[in-house]
Write a structure and sequence with these properties.
The protein is α+β, with helices and mostly antiparallel strands. It is 28% helix and 15% strand. The protein has helices at residues 38-48, 144-151, 162-171, 176-183, 230-239, 243-253, 308-313, 332-348, 426-434, 437-451, 457-470, 472-486; strands spanning 61-70, 89-98, 113-121, 124-131, 197-198, 203-206, 212-221, 259-268, 294-303, 326-327. The radius of gyration is 25 Å and the shape is globular.
Length: 487
């Protein structure tokens, strides 16, 4: 760990030497403090402004730097330069997080985990903003603010309310698959190192010939999957709220660098329209038997941040940070996030958040005409701030980053195009039936423990009906467990 302040006199923020950092200036030895003490004013004013607004979601997090190494030739699928050859290495920063908890919440809680990777490529930063689950609760961004409101504190009680959580889930049948994930064994990872990561959304890869493929990302932990039971998590959260952050930092300090095998599933664009379910539906996975996972690389974390605020709290990730050869898909949730993430960071950190060291490109230079605003450092000096210009400024390339998607129809609000096997319950039932009996028992116990806290019978009945539609045995067992707890 480096420390640039090991020698020399203490100074003010403006560089003036500090004579006394122990005693405020006063009117005599026992008199009141003087407003002329600018060191005191500076320190108190800075202290009042040291925090920035926490993230609305994913507020509680930890991060580390590392390296992504390509292990397979994928140039037939994408022209992204950081994927252009076996053995090619790219620096990365990975931020893990919980979703619903505030900045001061505990790590060991039942909640999805954010898995956001920033690749510092030679063509600019590529952000892959995913989770530790391959699916999500909803499929349309219009519902996202409502969903998050149910996960956060109720405006009247000031607490997270089971009524709100289960009312929304029961009225949103597409959530059944993700809820099954969340209340299963993988709902509480033992650490950030012992869980998988997923890009979750469908993205587009485009090769040098302009041929496009739909792609899903998987990060498979080489440390092995380890989870906590609810009882273990409750004890750990009370004993060590920083358990996951501490585990990650100390593992890297010991030289036990966590590693993930990076895999992708690839679908030719022409197959999407006729696929048996909507391949852009975030509540569904692509079965491996249809599109087998292909190993393409290795991701290792090997360096801790030196300042959590500067490098973790102020780090920003956005799905719109793309590079040539990688693009978005018609996934509605992804389309909403393309705007929402960048906008959240402009509000939370400032319009120049991308200029901070953790966020700016490391392997190339950012050349834009953006000027002024909070955190602007004057890096452009007197260069012209418009394009086109006649003074040698940055210019457009004319080369598309990805292949366009054919669209048609009348503008308006539409449900997603129907596919032959579109269903909100099939994959949730498949996931349940894949679980060993002991895991099914824990799933039912976890669900019943939460659902039994709901005050209204109609919400409970509606939720159980969704699980019954996923699997009759699933719903029947859950109903019996809830009734037993409610007496």
């Amino acid at each position: 760990m480096t420390d640039q302040f090991t020698a020399g006199p203490l100074t003010t923020e403006a560089g003036a030497p500090v004579a006394d950092n122990q005693n405020s200036q006063t009117a005599g030895a026992g008199g009141p403090v003087l407003i002329q003490d600018q060191l005191l004013i500076e320190k108190l004013a800075h202290f009042n402004r040291e925090r920035i607004p926490e993230r609305v979601v994913h507020a509680r997090g930890a991060g580390a730097y590392g390296t992504f190494t390509v292990t397979a030739d994928v140039t037939r699928y994408t022209r992204a330069k950081f994927l252009s050859g076996i053995g090619k290495e790219t620096e990365v920063f990975l931020r893990f997080s919980t979703v619903a908890g505030s900045l001061g919440a505990a790590d060991a809680v039942r909640d999805p985990r954010g898995f956001a990777v920033k690749f510092y490529t030679e063509e600019g930063n590529y952000d892959l903003v995913g989770n530790n689950t391959p699916v999500f609760f909803i499929k349309d961004p219009l519902k996202f603010p409502d969903f998050i409101h149910t996960q956060k504190r109720d405006p009247y009680t000031g607490s997270q309310e089971p009524d709100n959580v289960w009312d929304f889930w029961s009225l949103s049948p597409e959530s059944t698959h993700q809820v099954t994930w969340l209340f299963g064994d993988r709902g509480i990872p033992a650490s950030y190192r012992h869980m998988d990561g997923f890009g979750s959304h469908t993205f587009q890869w485009t090769n040098a010939e302009g041929e496009a493929f739909w792609v899903k990302y998987h990060f498979k932990t080489e440390q092995g999957i380890r989870n906590l039971t609810q009882a273990e998590a409750d004890a750990l959260a009370g004993k060590d709220p920083d358990s996951h952050q501490r585990d990650l930092r100390e593992a890297i300090e010991r030289g036990e660098y966590p590693v993930w095998t990076v895999q992708v599933q690839l679908m030719p664009v022409a197959e999407a329209a006729g696929y048996r379910f909507n391949p852009f539906d975030l509540t569904k996975v692509w079965p491996n038997e249809d599109y087998p996972r292909i190993t393409i690389g290795r991701l290792e974390l090997n360096r801790n941040p030196e300042n959590i605020f500067a490098e973790v709290e102020q780090s920003v990730f956005s799905p719109h940070h793309l590079v040539p050869g990688i693009g978005p898909s018609p996934d509605k949730m992804l389309q909403g996030r393309l705007f929402a993430y960048g906008d959240a960071h402009r509000y939370r950190v400032g319009v120049n958040a991308d200029q901070l060291p953790v966020n700016r490109p490391h392997a190339t230079e950012a050349r834009s005409h953006g000027r002024d605003g909070l955190l602007y450092d004057g890096r452009h000096r007197g260069a012209k701030n418009y394009e086109p210009n006649s003074f040698g400024g940055p210019f457009q390339t004319g080369a598309a980053l990805w292949t366009g998607t054919e669209v048609g129809g009348v503008t308006g609000t539409h449900a997603a195009p129907a596919h032959a096997e579109d269903d909100d319950f099939v994959q949730a039932g498949m996931l349940y039936r894949l679980m060993p009996e002991e895991e099914k028992e824990r799933l039912i116990e976890n669900l019943a423990g939460s659902l039994s806290q709901v005050s209204r019978e109609d919400i409970i009945d509606r939720a159980i009906a969704n699980f019954r539609r996923a699997d009759e045995n699933y719903g029947k067992r859950l109903e019996a467990a809830v009734q037993a707890l409610r007496g």
